[in-house]
Predict the structure.
Amino acid sequence: MKLGVNLDHIGTIREVRKAKEPDPVQAALLAELGGADGITVHLRGDKRHIKERDVELLRKVVKTRLNLEMAATEQAAELALRFMPDQATLVPERREEVTTEGGLDVILQGEFIKPQISNLLSAGIEVSIFVDPDPDQVRACAKVGVRAIEINTGKYADGENPERELENIEKSAKLACKLGLRVLAGHGLNYRNVTPIVRVEEIEELNIGHSIISRAVYVGLERAVREMKELVGKYR
Ligand code: PXP
């Protein structure tokens, strides 16, 4: 299983001081040294952590795959077309939220996001949608032209009823696979809760940020990534 490392919080630390460090670009190189299969950043509308400058430079230095998380809007799609990441992941975005709070409502917004999806795909950018583990949402994703989804593991990670949430994730992953979609997953995953998700056969890649960056404070980024990569690659 592949590991995408989300570097948003390198930007968060930099921006609390409006300083020049730490730099997501240097972090990306270390994450790749530690075995990351891809680098993810979320260029939010308010640019609160990752800036356009970061994405521009990351595009030049990332040797694995660059995944740009973005709102499903025309303005965000224009930026993606400028930076040309390998993949764009469409997420819902609310200004007041601390982090992405849930999956995109594709049932409601399907028609609105279709033009953005087709522009990105025609430019050669793969498109994935961050979606809750809900069969109706997964079916809606299959209808808007994307070939990949990222299942939101946030509720599973909250720990209120992880067994039930794991079951929902498994069912949605199976359904997505049947519908011909590649399946990724992420949000809230850490060194303690990741293994049951790794065992879900249909999931081919995880996107993990906060727990890796937090551990990096103690053990260094390269090692923090390597330790997560060991867990994520344990069964395949
Ligand atoms: N996937 C998506 C779509 C996200 O928005 C985030 C958070 O930026 C992540 C994965 C990573 O979540 P975490 O930082 O909790 O590992």
In short: DSSP finds eleven helices and eight strands in the chain. The pocket of pyridoxine-5'-phosphate is lined by residues 6, 8, 42, 69, 89, 91, 99-100, 130, 150, 186-189, 207-211 (CB under 6 Å). The two ends are 6 Å apart (CA to CA).
